[in-house]
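Private note to self, pasted from the team thread so I don't lose it. Backbone tokens:
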């Protein structure tokens, strides 16, 4: 009798466990039958059970080269491969159509799971780099098999390279731009993105009123953006925030996904595409189709060359070593995605399988990364202590003024000459010497019930943590809200209350947030984002690791949005 009771109890536990919602787990491989076709992107029904991905050690080591350096022979092969891919019927999962649709399905939350409220969104969180690597892997293998050349590798569009030496890396390569009979061409690209215009890595369209970005100074600002974004110290800053099964995703991308990845997309897409009819659907395209719209981006072959460059930068970031490591969280490593391989098999691959390029049998041509050569900053005489160690200032700062006074701080510092070497207005840092304590004293803390700002820069102070921890200090803005249908660009500075758009070459520039409206997507009403910025390296570079408070100034560039956030707190990130 007792045994029966125990068995019954066990059975109840098992049933309960089976019914329970699983929160915080790896994503299982999506099933096509649960794809919800609201965005019209689901793959055709396919009842097969996906086969597990396996490595192909026999593949030749394929080399992805910089798009500006490939020769005519390669371009011919590259074009032939895309011509073949475009020629496949749409029902063929290897066709460019089906490839683009698959990307769309993964970016609109179309892949639902039985018993889970949320669909999978591979953008805006920690899967961004890993998912795209897998997608590129299969895409490239399909192209290779279509031209029966197993050495074929995609090129990378080297937009981060600002060297003003021909051939330029930071323009769309001309062989993408030839209109006639060119399978690499897309009519849905911005006029402003056509060569010889160079790419604008902070492009949002904001403040331009349809004009092309001014190329003057663009190389410099692109270099600054690259240097800053690639200096992400932790996996979370680089890849984006953790995102687990049965939770809502897409709200906290890493540095690189937002800028320059998103900006390059919208720079390349045609802002006027909505004036034309899509011959397939007889409906109008959306503004910024194709590249500037995730639902259609992968219809443009440029998409894949854009993403190989991101993939290369991920590889480079890891190879820099030190704290640059990927997540070791099993919810990350064991999450699975499905793709179609070159034989049209449905394949399931997990994140842990894309972390080693050798095993995937490809590599990148060595390329200098000129943004690394930005002149190293001369920090003032100070030993660089460990990340969260500081020496408390001798006296506590005076009580801050009321919020309203803040608006005048920038002017106060702009007009009030400060003593010492920092009085020179051409230097970025007014903050070495006695000024920093004054800046801290006058900057108010944030209000507890949320903060908003618009075109007037916002300056506030945040207290650093008292504890020392293993990891890096990051500043996280929670519940960031704006009009998501409009573009926005915010730059963040440390101890620089009179920062302007031009201050991005200052060492105090420590983060940027771009919002790119996606005409084809509507955000839920309560949509908000999280924005996380690294502090430790910046504080060290400007010699401010010892201070108890940081003073942050947010400046909107070009856009004129009303921007709100709930709080900005400093945490230790040990990812
Ligand atoms: Cu899946 Cu560049 O986007």
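Design output:
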């Amino acid at each position: 009798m007792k045994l029966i009771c125990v068995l019954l109890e066990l059975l109840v536990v098992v049933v309960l466990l089976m019914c329970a919602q699983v929160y915080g787990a790896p994503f299982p491989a999506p099933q096509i039958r649960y794809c919800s076709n609201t965005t019209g992107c689901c793959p055709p029904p396919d009842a097969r059970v996906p086969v597990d991905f396996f490595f192909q050690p026999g593949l030749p080591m394929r080399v992805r080269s910089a798009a500006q350096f490939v020769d005519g022979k390669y371009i011919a092969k590259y074009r032939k491969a895309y011509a073949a891919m475009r020629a496949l019927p749409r029902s063929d999962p290897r066709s460019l159509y089906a490839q683009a649709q698959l990307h769309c399905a993964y970016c609109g939350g179309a892949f639902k799971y039985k018993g889970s409220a949320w669909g999978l969104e591979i953008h805006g969180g920690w899967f961004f780099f890993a998912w795209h690597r897998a997608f590129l892997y299969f895409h490239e293998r399909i192209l290779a098999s279509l031209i029966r050349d197993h050495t074929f590798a995609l090129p990378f569009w080297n937009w981060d390279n600002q060297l003003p030496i021909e051939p330029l890396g930071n323009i769309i390569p001309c062989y993408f731009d030839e209109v006639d009979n060119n399978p690499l061409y897309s009519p849905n690209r911005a006029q402003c993105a056509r060569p010889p215009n160079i790419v604008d890595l902070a492009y949002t369209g904001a403040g331009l009123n349809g004009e092309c970005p001014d190329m003057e100074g663009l190389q410099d600002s692109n270099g600054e953006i690259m240097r800053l974004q690639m200096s992400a110290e932790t996996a979370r800053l680089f890849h984006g925030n953790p995102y687990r099964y049965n939770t809502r995703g897409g709200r906290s991308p890493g540095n690189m996904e937002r800028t320059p990845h998103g900006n390059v997309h919208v720079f390349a897409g045609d802002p006027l595409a909505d004036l034309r009819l899509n011959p397939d659907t007889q409906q109008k395209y959306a503004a910024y189709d194709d590249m500037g719209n995730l639902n259609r981006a992968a219809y443009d072959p440029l998409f894949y060359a854009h993403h190989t460059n991101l993939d290369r930068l991920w590889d480079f970031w890891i190879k820099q070593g030190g704290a640059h490591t990927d997540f070791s969280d099993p919810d990350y490593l064991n999450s699975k995605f499905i793709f179609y391989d070159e034989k049209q098999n449905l394949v399931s691959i997990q994140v842990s399988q894309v972390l080693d390029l050798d095993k995937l049998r490809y590599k990148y041509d060595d390329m200098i990364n000129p943004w690394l050569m930005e002149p190293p900053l001369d920090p003032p005489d100070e030993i660089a202590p460990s990340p969260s160690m500081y020496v408390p200032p001798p006296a506590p700062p005076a009580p801050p003024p009321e919020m309203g006074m803040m608006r005048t701080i920038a002017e106060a510092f702009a007009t009030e000459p400060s003593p010492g070497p920092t009085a020179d207005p051409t230097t970025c840092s007014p903050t070495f010497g006695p000024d920093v304590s004054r800046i801290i004293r006058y900057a108010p803390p944030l209000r507890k019930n949320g903060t908003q700002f618009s075109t007037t820069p916002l300056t506030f102070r945040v207290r650093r943590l008292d504890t020392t921890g293993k990891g890096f200090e990051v500043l996280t803005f929670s519940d960031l809200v704006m009009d998501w249908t409009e573009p926005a660009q915010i730059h963040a500075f440390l101890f620089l209350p009179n920062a302007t758009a031009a201050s991005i070459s200052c060492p105090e520039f420590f983060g940027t947030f771009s919002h790119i409206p996606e005409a084809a997507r509507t955000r839920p009403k309560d949509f908000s984002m999280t924005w996380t910025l690294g502090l430790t390296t910046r504080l060290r570079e400007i010699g401010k690791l010892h201070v108890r408070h940081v003073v942050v100034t947010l400046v909107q560039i070009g856009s004129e949005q009303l921007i709100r956030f709930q709080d900005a707190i400093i945490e230790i990130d040990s990812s």
